[in-house]
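Forum > Structural Biology > Help requests

Title: Can anyone predict the 3D structure of Lipid-A-disaccharide synthase?

Hi all, first post here. I have the sequence for Lipid-A-disaccharide synthase but no way to get a structure on my laptop. I'd be grateful if someone could post the structure tokens.
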Amino acid sequence: MTQQLFFSVGEPSGDQHCARLIQALSQQHAGLQLRGFGGPEMQRAGCQLDHDLTQMAVMGVVEVLPKLRQFFRLADQAEAVFASGQVDAVLLADFPGFNWHIAKRAKKYNLPVYYYLPPQLWAWAPWRIRKLRRTVDKVLSVLPFECEWYQQRGVNAECVGHPFFDAVAEQQLDAAVIDSLTAQIRQGQRLVAVLPGSRQHEVTRNWPVMLEAIRRLSKQYPDARFLVAAFKDKQCLWCRDQLTATDRALPIDFFVGKSSEIIEMAECGMMVSGSVSLEMMARGTPAPVIYRVGRVFYGVGRMMVRVPSMTLPNLIAGETIFPEHVSCGSPESTVQFLHRHVDAMLGDALYRERLDQKLGQLRSAIAQPGASQRAAATVLNEMGIALPPAVAA
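Reply #1:
Sure, ran it for you. Structure tokens for Lipid-A-disaccharide synthase below:
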């Protein structure tokens, strides 16, 4: 009898990661039916999409409230599918605010619930572990320390690895950009990646301090060239608009959508905190990490956040490999932080050697592909579906 797996995936990144999971599921068991809420990447991979949930990805109460009624309608829609008896299991990914409701409704019909890319309760909401234990049968953790945290609290968790490293391994880099950057290196230039964030508010808060750090570093290192990796065209234009007449002479190049190529070729970098730190780790490029926030957000964050680092590679390693600095006050402290650490990465050979050694060890231990295949095998095993001998082995 054909079995059906229902997805609920709300973030664009989750859409990408679950598209790879869907491909792996189809490879390991072609007869499994896949449907639910997700995004265009999942649909292209073969999932029957009941609704594009990624269009509703929001952050914060102000953004959620106007869409609250639509979220409840979607939860009702999912429950109707569960009640029909068509679904055999439910897989959630990210998006906990909505997915808690999906999990609760699935349990009304005794459906097994699996959580891939689980909520980072260890960082901001450890008290919600009771809710997760009640509503989730299996957590497919993507980080070793995260899996251990869940297991210590009585959760049935398994570490399958982070699918981000599958993406890095599969990615085809732009050969023209790589060739251009290689030519610059051969001419004696030292490339520094500048990653100002993917969201507009991140760019607005952090690019000005990065620019000031570039001004100071370019005087100290005339052979350095700073490669700004913007996420969108409008962010690139905004960054350019902040340059003064004097800044036009600075050794800065702007790119859109080429962060992977820049990270691959750069000697070091500076970055805003985010998932890009995993790619910096995977490609072996060290960088200081910053995050400038408003005073209210800073105060709330200090009360809620329960981990010693905001950077995933540091949490994985259990030590500081990517120096980090969160601030809400004077920008000067952030500028000095960036200058100090990029200066050390460019100018202190012994410091750089130690850093590269630690980064290399972490990279070898963690940045390995295969997470999507492992996650697929775990899901099929939980559903009681026999795996092909090669996969089972």
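The chain has 20 helices and 13 strands. The chain has two domains: 4-161+370-392, 169-366.
Shout if anything looks off.
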